[in-house]
Amino acid sequence: MAASKRRGFLYRNGLSIFAVGFFLIFWAAQAITGWLEHNDELQEKGAAALTFGAYLTSGSFAEVTFENWESEFLQMFLYVLVTVKLRQAGSSESKALDRPKDVDAEPKPGPNAPWPVKRGGWVLTLYKRSLSLAFLFLFLASFGLHAWGSYRDYVNDQQLKHEVPKAFMAFLGEPRFWFESFQNWQSEFLAIASIVLLSIWLRQFGSPESKPVDMPHSETP
Which string of DSSP letters, residue by residue, matches 24-81? Predict the structure, then answer.
């Protein structure tokens, strides 16, 4: 622990800084290009263009943002959950087939253990499942915001056509909303299948997502 603290902040947090940094860059790029594309559509329909600030609070921006977020959080929720029990022989993403892992051991209170472990009881019960529960909450929140944004965008489209929009629950029964969701969900599970299966035979030297380069294909780490 003392040795790790002697490392610089960037060294100790480089992975999260990388991920969050690229997220913010690409999200900003999505917002700008989405704003320009949305205004092109509005002008084609004879409607006034939106300011950038108005676009950021529009149903269109909410729809495209949260339909992607929901698929990511759904993927992580289910992946964290199913890897408790399911195995894939030879994959770096799987627990070993015939031996327990440290994550299967019952938590023991200790001086450096997280406070829920020391507290025990229902607090520990929740903490033992807090990662999957957090992803479930984020998925449900994103799903709800996607539905809200998609409906607002649909209402705006109907108003531009001078047509009466359907009620929210009727809208959810239409293919549009579910098409937006399913096109993202399928890609997330393709990504999971890719890393699970490709990591059986392929390697990346130095990456914790890969098996050691000299490990046999059939062996599960």
Answer: HHHHHHHHHHHHHHHHHHHHHTTPPPPPHHHHHTSHHHHHHHHHHHHHHHHHHHHHHH
Max alpha carbon distance in the chain (Å)?
67
Residue tagged 């205004």 (tokens): 39
Distances (CA, A) of 209 to 43, 136, 197, 212: 47, 23, 12, 10
pTM: 0.93
Phi-psi region for residue 102, left (φ > 0), alpha (ψ -120 to 50) or beta?
alpha
Query: Can you give the length of the chain in residues?
Result: 221
What's the confidence (pLDDT) of residue 196? 96
| 207 burial level (CB within 10 Å; 0-12, 13-18, 19+) | exposed
